[in-house]
């Protein structure tokens, strides 16, 4: 019966590559422990090979209208099938934006039966969820190395709970466990964290290492307001995240429209570069992330085994099973404390007590298995030997991966560290000021200089006389800006030198 308990399981294998290795050790060493203690009913479904093979994924989470869908459009620099953008709650489903030569949409029910994709376990969230799930296939170079998950905006209060008809936070948790990055978007123009959003962030708390926070739509406000909004966001986040460290927040405006206030341009550009570099590194670090998640899962599976076997031990063999079950569920906190001391488990490794109590309520404790030290030993060995072996392989694979697949390319990623093209990083400054804007940069200054001109001009609309030189120098500045903005470099040089010559000869 326990064929997986054979001595082979204790052997440390040599694996061809990290992903293959992870698949094998999961199947042969961790999965037996998980199934024996019903881990999948309590925490997360069984992992499949497609979970390990999947491209790195980015999950976008935020309240409605914070610019999640626009963010994807900005990254891809194009629309994807089924895209809807608008100031009202628009996206009403989970959309996996993935690469394919042929563009199109796969609806949820068909998506979860596709063995090649990693979404099969999502079928447990029921039909009303599957009607709200789709895969949009796009032929974009960005998606050759990553996939992006767009989510419906989080609404506030009852609306969220009643209208959805499926376990929204459960789905978020499922994705959070499998993705490589979670981008939390906040709207600088409408900063507020609703109760529902707070609950969703709390559900993601186990994956803080994957979370990146973006203060989006910062182009809507000026620098003074931005400082205040940033401060307010940090204050609210401190309360929700409850970590002693300060969260890194990327400030910016991730859409293709010109900025309303130019003062923050450089800040936005720097922040965008940092965020994009972080996202670009995802394919390179994908194996490490999967390894990290497997370790996390193995630790939880071990603690889970201890809890279940402890509950089994406490159950009476004949009478009073129901009342004992109730008592055990109630005193779960005490059991946690006892086990903490007995097995030297850190308190952070225990599953959330409330959630555990809820699930335990529907379980038959007499069906739980007693402790099987052999199973735990196999997992311990796996953590100590196999994981260490695979870890040693990672630096080598990273080099190979960068050579074969490389970073994320195309779309908005073209501008990362691009200092050559006129629209690249740190362009639009100094002599290139206004390069990325729709309006001529001079129109900002024009009224001021029109006034000066009106003051010094004669009735025929001309400027004459030596006394006007200071004004002419100012006007020269305007002309230089004007020429620069028109990007006619050859003319710029000759005009500028002519003006400078004129100015020199007149003094
Ligand atoms: N000013 C400004 N507006 C933006 C920015 N990004 C998006 N918007 C606007 O914000 C509105 C909402 O954008 P969406 O992309 O639909 O937001 P969403 O988060 O996907 O919204 P839901 O799908 O409803 O959750 C649209 O009108 C966008 O044009 C930005 O960076 N700056
Ligand atoms: Mg949307």
UniProtKB/TrEMBL annotation:
Q: Which UniProt keywords apply?
A: Calcium, Cell membrane, Endosome, Membrane, Metal-binding, Nucleotide-binding
Domain Dynamin-type G residue range list: 52-283
One Pfam entry name: EHD_N
Where is this protein localized, as stated in its record?
A: Cell membrane; Endosome membrane
Stored PROSITE patterns: G_DYNAMIN_2 (PS51718)
Topology within the bilayer: Peripheral membrane protein
**Any idea which GO molecular function terms this record carries?**
cadherin binding; GTP binding; metal ion binding
Q: What is a single cellular component term in the Gene Ontology annotation?
A: early endosome
Could you tell me the Gene Ontology terms of the biological process aspect for this record?
A: cilium assembly; endocytic recycling; endocytosis; protein localization to plasma membrane
Q: Which domain of life is it from?
A: Eukaryota
In Swiss-Prot or TrEMBL terms, this protein is called Dynamin N and/or MMR HSR1 domain containing protein
Native source organism of the sequence: Asbolus verrucosus (Desert ironclad beetle)
């Amino acid at each position: 019966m326990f064929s997986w308990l054979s001595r082979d399981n204790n052997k440390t294998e040599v694996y061809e590559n990290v992903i293959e290795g992870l698949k094998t050790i999961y199947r042969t060493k961790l999965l037996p422990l998980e199934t024996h203690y019903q881990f999948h009913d309590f925490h997360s479904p069984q992992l499949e090979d497609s979970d390990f093979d999947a491209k790195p994924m980015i999950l976008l989470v935020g309240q409605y209208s914070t610019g999640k869908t626009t963010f994807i459009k900005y990254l891809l620099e194009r629309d994807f099938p089924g895209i809807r953008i608008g100031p009202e709650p628009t996206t009403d489903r989970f959309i996996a934006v993935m690469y394919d030569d042929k563009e199109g949409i796969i609806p949820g029910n068909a998506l979860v039966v596709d063995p090649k994709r990693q979404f099969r376990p999502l079928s447990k969230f029921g039909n009303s969820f599957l009607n709200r799930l789709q895969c949009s296939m796009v032929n974009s170079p960005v998606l050759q190395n990553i996939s992006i998950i767009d989510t419906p905006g989080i609404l506030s209060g009852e609306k969220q709970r009643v209208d959805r008809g499926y376990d929204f936070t459960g789905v978020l948790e499922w994705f959070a466990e499998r993705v490589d990055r979670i981008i939390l978007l906040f709207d600088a123009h409408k900063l507020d964290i609703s109760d529902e959003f707070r609950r969703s962030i709390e559900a993601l708390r186990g994956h803080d290492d994957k979370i990146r926070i973006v203060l989006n739509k910062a182009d809507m406000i000026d620098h003074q307001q931005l400082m205040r909004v940033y401060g307010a966001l940090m204050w609210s986040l401190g309360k929700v995240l409850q970590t002693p460290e300060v969260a890194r927040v990327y400030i910016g405006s991730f859409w293709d429209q010109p900025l309303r206030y130019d003062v923050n341009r450089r800040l936005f550009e720097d922040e965008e570069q940092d965020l994009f570099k972080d996202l670009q590194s995802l394919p390179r670090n994908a194996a490490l992330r999967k390894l990290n998640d497997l370790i996390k899962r193995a630790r939880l599976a071990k603690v889970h085994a201890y809890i279940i076997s402890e509950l089994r031990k406490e159950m009476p063999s004949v009478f009073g099973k129901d009342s004992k079950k109730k008592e055990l569920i109630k005193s779960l906190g005490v059991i946690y404390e006892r086990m903490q001391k007995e097995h030297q488990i850190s308190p952070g490794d225990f599953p959330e007590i409330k959630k555990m109590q809820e699930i335990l309520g529907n379980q038959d404790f007499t069906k739980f298995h007693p402790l099987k030290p052999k199973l735990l030993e196999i997992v311990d060995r796996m953590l100590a030997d196999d994981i260490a072996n695979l870890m040693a392989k990672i630096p080598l694979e990273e080099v190979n991966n960068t050579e074969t697949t490389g970073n994320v390319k195309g779309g908005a990623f073209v501008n990362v560290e691009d200092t050559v093209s006129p629209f690249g990083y740190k362009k639009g400054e100094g002599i290139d000021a206004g390069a990325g804007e729709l309006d001529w940069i001079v129109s900002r200054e024009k009224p001021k200089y029109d006034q000066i001109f009106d003051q010094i001009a004669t009735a025929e609309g001309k400027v004459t006389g030596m006394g006007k030189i200071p004004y002419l120098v100012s006007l020269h500045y305007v002309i230089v800006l004007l020429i620069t903005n028109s990007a006619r470099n050859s003319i710029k040089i000759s005009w500028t030198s002519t003006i400078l010559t004129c100015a020199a000869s007149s003094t």
